[in-house]
Structures are given as C-alpha cells and as structure tokens.
Design brief:
4-stranded antiparallel beta sheet, alpha+beta, 19% helix, 3 helices, 8 strands
C-alpha cells in the first residue's frame, strides 16, 4: 500500500503541488474577504495573547501612568564599631646617673711673690719681698726671699686710690737671682716716679 502511494505521488507531484497552492491561495483570499482592515476586536483576541509590539505607539504611551511619589528613605544603618586602638609602646627606663668624679686638688695661687709701691718707693702691699727701694728717679729695686731666675715679672702703673693717667712706659729686668728692677719713663725717655704693682710668676 505504501509503495503504491509513494509511486503515485512521484508520478503526480507536480499536480499535487499545484493543487496545494491553489487551495492555500483560496484560503488567503477567503480570510481577506472575511476580515476587513482594522476589524479585529475583543471577540477575536484571546486573553493574554497580545504583546507590547502588537500595540500602536499611542496605545503603549497611553498604558504608561504618571510616576508615583518617591518612597520614604530607608532607616539608617547601624554605625560600625570603632577600631581597637593599638597598644602604647613601653617607655624606656632612664639611664643610670654616672658616679660623681673625684674632686681635684686645689690649685696653687698664681703667684706668691708680689708688691705694691707708692711713687716714693714705700711698700703698701707685700708678699715675699725682703727689700723695696727707689734707687733713682723712675728706678725701683725689689728683692725677694727666693730664687727668681726662672720666673717672669709683670709690672703695671696703678694704685688702690685711683688709676694713673698720662704717657708712660714700664720696663722690668733682673739684676740678681732675687732682685727685680722696675724703670718708668715717658715718651721722651724722661724718668717718672709713679705708683705701680709688680708680680713675679714662677
């Protein structure tokens, strides 16, 4: 039976195709005749079968309502807990106080040999001198009780009662192992009698 049907369709396929097209065209024509343009209504549409693209632009616009009021703000979230503070570093211990150094021995006086003389050769202060004289105008000799060969001699005009002013020069020298000469003169090499101090540093 199947073989016969297949053989029949093979011999008459062109005729069958023509018949199919003819019947389909008649159906299309009949549907156009039965459904005029813009004639589809609620009765012809199944509920839920239309899509948004099936509607016109105006219809889609009409379906959109006004924007509703803004909803209330949500409740504020809980605040996060603060981070844990880092531990404070340990403070270093202060260094130990060093031991106090041993006190040094008291120093000796700068000099134990000194004198203060008035202009006439009178001793007003004396330490270690055995003799003080005015040998000539502006020339004085002071002897001490020790050898002063390796010492230095420093003389300056002056007195406790007040300073000495004017143009003068003082020159010192040693005449023996114990005696110092002091000579005072002005800028013209004229001898001057002036009060002075003499210190011997050994």
């Amino acid at each position: 039976m199947l073989r016969r049907t297949a053989s029949y369709m093979k011999r008459h396929h062109l005729a069958l195709f023509a018949l199919f097209v003819a019947l389909g065209g008649t159906s299309f024509a009949a549907s156009n005749a039965l459904l005029p343009r813009n004639s589809v209504g609620t009765a012809q549409v199944l509920n839920g079968s239309l899509q948004a693209n099936d509607l016109s632009k105006n219809a889609r616009t009409a379906l959109k309502g006004n924007t509703g009021p803004r909803g209330p703000a949500g409740a504020q979230g809980a605040q996060g807990s603060p981070g844990t503070a880092g531990a404070q570093g340990l403070q270093g211990s202060p260094g130990a106080t060093g031991a106090q150094g041993v006190q040094g021995a008291p120093g000796q006086s700068a000099t134990k040999l000194f004198v203060a003389l008035d202009a006439d050769g009178t001793l007003t202060k004396n330490s270690g001198a055995t003799l003080a004289t005015r040998a000539n105008a502006g020339v004085y000799r002071i002897s001490f009780n020790t050898d002063i060969t390796n010492c230095a001699y420093l003389a300056t005009a002056g007195q406790d009662a007040g300073g000495v002013s004017g143009d003068y020069n003082i020159f010192t020298s040693r005449t023996s192992t114990t005696t110092v000469n002091v000579v005072i003169f002005d800028g013209s090499n004229n001898a001057l009698d002036l009060p002075f101090y003499l210190a011997v540093f050994c």
